[in-house]
Amino acid sequence: MRSSATRIVFGALALRPGGSGVQTYIRELLNELPHCLPDADLAASVQRDAVGELPPSVTAMERPVTSGTARALLGALPVGRCDVVHGLDVDLPFLTKAFTVATVHDLSVIDMPSASSRFRALGEQRLVRRALRRADLLIAVSQFTADRIKAVSGRDATVVGLAPAAWATVPTDSRVDVVRSKYDLPDRFVMQVGTVEPRKNVQLVADAAEKLGIPCLLAGAGSTGPHAPRNSRGLGYVDVEDLPALYAAATVTAYASRYEGYGLPPVEAMASGGAVVASAVGALPDVVGDGAVLVESENVDDWVHAMKPIAFDGDARAALVDAAAVATREISWRRTAELTADAYRAAGVV
Fold it and tell me: In sequence order, which ranges of 37-117 are alpha helices (DSSP H)?
């Protein structure tokens, strides 16, 4: 056993101010872990403009603000004396005597390399494969990702699920009214939140909404750009504090992703009082449970069939929202942190 002064350094260069997805994981995990490891000395390698995202009990190891290949190189640098290095987005130093841990969010760069440029895909594949090969302990955010790790590398991973961001709570009616007015929302609409990219398949959502005869609204990067579906209305980036009310106001929140290692946006929509219809791919069936309607194809008529009862039957929508509340009630970031600490203990490093 290590002493009570175990020093753990987290690779947190992916953390960005106000970011979502992997950024939510890093932010929320580091906020909760100090409660689960009260005797440990915790530090995180973080970009300079994201230092404010760390809790006071995690010491910032400041790095320059950068991205892409430069950020990957920063993640490979030594982190000094420590007992454990945990790459929160598979970033591990090349030289270290510490016990190494890597969190793997998905293997999309291996499973769907066409979603990125060839150069970027090759670089990210090398980064991921190195972590799969070199880490002493692998943590997967879902059983689906753990299964993909096993298939690709032959190694086992400890599954530690995620949870909705702290902001994902059911809004008040008055807050929904404010957001409806702010974004000039129609009475009934289908919404998808996220980057407009091939993997997210937003055109399918827009086409299904058009067949239903109700507007499709998109929020996120590219939603007002040239690659957004012509039969949709883009809101652009929306303030995080507005997201719960947007989810609650939407008649249907749809996620037609072709691949998800976990799927935080659908879970956050569910926790915010949204009625979610999602594709039955990757980790989503396990993650959403009975709290969302799942569609097993990319056929637009199948999506219309799944969304129609929720769009036009208030009781059906209310029942789905209630089921979503039950499905998200038992998951929390404190539980994620506890399971992470348990994984360290099982490995004998804390």
Answer: 68-75, 108-111
